Design the sequence.
């Protein structure tokens, strides 16, 4: 009974964090909230008696996936800031045209 | 307007389809027929204290081999796509922000503990929850901390490739040994099952999970290194 209530509370937190990840304006906050969803999900797996799945979810879902998303966010910001002429795969700069 | 109606229709459709799941959610009071079979037979046949590991490594071992192959393909794809040239970093080597003192000190403390914990998880995969995949991710976390603490440092590609290739080959070799010396491909009964709960028990299950752990750790470290932008 107590674990049922804990699972329900965790589910509500997950739904709230998921909605927050969608509606927030900042991509950083969105990534961190989706990592939080995975963290609470691993708690739910633990309460349901599946420690193996809980470990996988905590390590991959909330740890590694968040890091990969953060790296991707940093990369996309860098691509926005960079002068597009400086990119090597831009044919115009290789031809020595725009400098 | 039309789009909104379609979206609402799609959501209602999903709700109707998924509604029966809501009634079946929760902890089952008693395991089903297949689960009961596994729970009764796995400790007796294979000598694994953790039945989940017996299923993942032995009964459904071929699925796990497929998962490892998928992870390998994903790593190869990331490594091929995220090179410095493709990221547009080839000409100018960007200055990276140095890590803070807190991160560097914490990394020095945690690296050895994290690697030890990862190795503990996959070596004890047949006794306690967790196994090769979880242990490999924990090891990759230790590598990530080091990449963050020393932004100018590089991962030793040769070592990582060697570990990955050797552990993959060892996995398939252990599977083939099961086919020739025991009952089938990836059967762990090549070595004696031993007594339940001992570290050296359950046949080749600990060996298989150890090579999976090393492979997953090396592959995920490679993905993080590629995302950092160090691949030539």
Sequence:
């Amino acid at each position: 009974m107590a674990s049922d209530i804990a699972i329900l509370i965790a589910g509500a937190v997950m739904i709230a964090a998921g909605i927050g990840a969608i509606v927030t304006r900042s991509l950083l906050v969105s990534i961190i909230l989706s990592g939080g969803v995975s963290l609470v999900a691993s708690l739910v797996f633990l309460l349901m008696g599946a420690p193996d799945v809980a470990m996988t979810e905590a390590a991959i879902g909330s740890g590694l996936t968040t890091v990969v998303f953060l790296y991707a966010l940093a990369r996309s910001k860098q691509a926005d800031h960079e002068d597009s002429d400086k990119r090597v795969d831009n044919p115009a700069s290789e031809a020595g045209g725009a400098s | 307007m039309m789009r909104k109606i379609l979206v609402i229709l799609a959501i209602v459709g999903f709700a109707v389809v998924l509604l029966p799941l809501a009634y079946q959610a929760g902890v089952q009071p008693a395991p089903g027929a297949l689960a009961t079979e596994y729970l009764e037979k796995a400790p007796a046949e294979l000598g694994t204290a953790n039945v989940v590991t017996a299923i993942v490594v032995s009964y459904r071992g071929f699925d796990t081999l497929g998962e490892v192959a998928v992870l390998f393909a994903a790593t190869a794809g990331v490594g091929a796509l995220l090179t410095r040239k493709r990221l547009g970093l080839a000409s100018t080597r960007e200055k990276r922000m140095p890590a803070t003192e807190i991160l560097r000190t914490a990394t020095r403390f945690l690296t050895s503990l994290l690697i030890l914990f990862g190795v503990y998880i996959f070596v004890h995969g047949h006794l306690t929850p967790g196994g090769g995949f979880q242990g490999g991710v924990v090891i990759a976390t230790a590598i990530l901390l080091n990449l963050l603490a020393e932004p100018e440092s590089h991962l030793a590609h040769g070592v990582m490739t060697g570990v990955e290739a050797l552990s993959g080959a060892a996995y398939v070799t252990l599977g083939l040994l099961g086919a020739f010396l025991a009952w089938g491909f990836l059967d762990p009964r090549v070595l004696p099952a031993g007594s339940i709960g001992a570290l050296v028990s359950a046949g080749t299950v600990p060996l298989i999970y150890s090579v999976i752990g090393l492979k997953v750790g090396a592959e995920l470290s490679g993905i993080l290194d590629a995302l950092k932008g160090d691949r030539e």
Observations:
- Residues 36-88+102-228 of chain B form one domain.
